[in-house]
Specification:
It is built from 4 helices and 3 strands. It has one domain (3-113): K homology (KH) domain (GMP Synthetase, Chain A, domain 3, 2-Layer Sandwich), CATH 3.30.300.20. It is an alpha+beta fold. It has a 3-stranded mixed sheet, covered by helices on one side.
Length: 114
């Protein structure tokens, strides 16, 4: 499969997952969550979703527990919204890159101030 099709499909998955995550009613999935990256395997059988929270890494880990418990529902919804031969197995992973980049930005700002 050409890489542009894989990139386009992963963007479609990201868009649909964002919409599906808004409908989940798990209390662990709260606050501002953002999907940073969606990695699809070349055969579209596995989808790794990197999730970050503006409340910190602890909130992201809690949200990932809730998302992983709802992975079957999310997979079914994704399969109905995107026409693929098989819907991919979804694995959510907590990521703190937003917090890390904010820390680096603060350090650079402090260096510029001095």
């Amino acid at each position: 499969m050409p890489s542009f099709r894989l990139d386009r499909t992963s963007e479609d998955v990201k868009r649909e997952l964002t919409d599906i995550m808004r409908t989940l009613k798990d209390p662990r999935i709260n606050g501002l969550l953002s999907i940073l990256k969606v990695d699809l395997s070349k055969d579209l059988s596995l989808c790794r979703v990197y999730v970050s929270s503006l409340d910190g890494i602890a909130a992201a880990k809690s949200a990932v527990e809730g998302l992983n418990s709802a992975a079957g529902y999310v997979r079914r919804e994704l399969g109905q919204r995107i026409k693929l031969r098989r819907s991919p197995q979804i694995q959510f992973i907590a990521d703190d890159s937003i917090e890390h980049s904010a820390h680096i930005n603060q350090m650079l700002h402090n260096l510029h101030k001095d």
